[in-house]
Amino acid sequence: MRNTWKLKLRMILTSVVMFTIVYFLIMLVGSFLGISSWKLYFGASLVIVFLQYWFGPSIVKRSMNVRPLSEAEAPHIHQMVQELADAAGIQKPEIGLSEINIPNAFAYGRSSRNGHIAITRPILGLLDRDELKAVIGHEMGHIKHNDMIVTAAVSVIPMICYYIALSFMFSGDNDNGGAFVIGILGYVFYLIGQLLVLFISRTREYYADEASVEFGNRPAALVSALYKLSYGAARCDEKTISEVNTNRAFFVNDVNNARNDVSDFQQIDFDSDGKISDEELRRLANSDVEISRKNGLMELLSTHPDSLKRVKRLAELE
User: Where are the transmembrane segments (predicted)?
Assistant: First the structure.
């Protein structure tokens, strides 16, 4: 198993920066309100983060309409998950079926000891066995790395900053502009926090891709699955996409960027058969990939890495 110390270090540093931001902002709020016991506010923020940690998996399950998928219903899925769990060296996660109309899969849970993997119904008729196993292997990587709960916990901090910003910018009690300044700082910290959350989200996707390969899946099978999932999401209407927008970081790919991703994948689908073969991926491994400025900027605002950069890394593994 590849050493994941860089991923762990980035998650730790991101968490430290995020908690420093909220600590500083709450100190300003307490000072402005004349409350010396700022610990009360900081404690409240910690409670919010803890509640996100504790109830986050249940919220994801409910919002994504997940129900248990029994072994009798899908013995081949359970077999895949068991094989991948054995390869990852963790206990078999719970398996669920998400009744949403976008083909995809996602992992959630508080740790690798109580992980959950859910697949959406449309994915079953879209991917072949190797592709589906590669996608589930990707989700198994998230559980192995325990990165789902870090993302869920830190993602609530920008929202705390956002609500503080709204409360003070439009409070009507400026007191020589002090409230407005706090509001502006809150909004700036909200933007910084969002960028940090997106950064750690993109980083963990690279490691989950590599984990899927380390668990025995072919890189080309995962790339081909990403191609098909992007195509499937691109065919969904905007209302369907918007319904899962708040949870899109949990998906294998960014469904908001599906149409652009399809265009990128078509560039390496040399025989235009709608799949990516081992040979096509090997050709990419020996080619240079250039990312436009527009795509580079879009990546900064995305929960997932640029598709060509992501596929290039998988090609190098091939």
Answer: 12-35, 41-60, 148-171, 177-200
- Cα separation, 269 vs 96, in Å, equals 32
User: What residues make up the domain containing 293?
Assistant: 219-316
**pLDDT > 70 in the chain, percent:** 96
**Amino acid residing at 54:** W
CB atoms within 10 A of CB 261: 26
Does some domain include residue 288? Answer: yes
Residues 159, 49, 99, 83: what is their CA dihedral angle, to the nearest 10 degrees?
Answer: 130
Helix axis angle, 178-214 relative to 293-300, nearest 10°? 110
Q: Is 142 one of the annotated binding-site residues?
A: yes
- pLDDT given at position 100: 93
Distance between CA 176 and CA 180 in Å, rounded? 9
The number of residues making up the chain comes to 318
The rounded distance, in Å, linking the Cα atoms of 311 and 295 is: 15
238 is in an annotated binding site: no
The number of folded domains in the chain is 1
Residues 6+ apart with CB under 8 A from 233: 102, 103, 104, 241, 253, 255, 258
Residue 180 resides in a domain: no
For the segment 24-61, what is each residue's pLDDT rounded down to a tens digit? 888 888 888 777 666 776 777 778 778 877 888 888 89
Domain membership of residue 256 (yes or no) is yes
Strand boundaries in 159-232, DSSP class E: none
Grade residue 19 by pLDDT with cuts at 50, 70 and 90: confident
Q: Is residue 248 part of a domain?
A: yes
Strand-pairing partners, residue 68, are 96
Positions annotated as catalytic residues are 139
76 known ligand binder:
no
Give the confidence band of 174 by pLDDT, cuts at 50, 70, 90: low
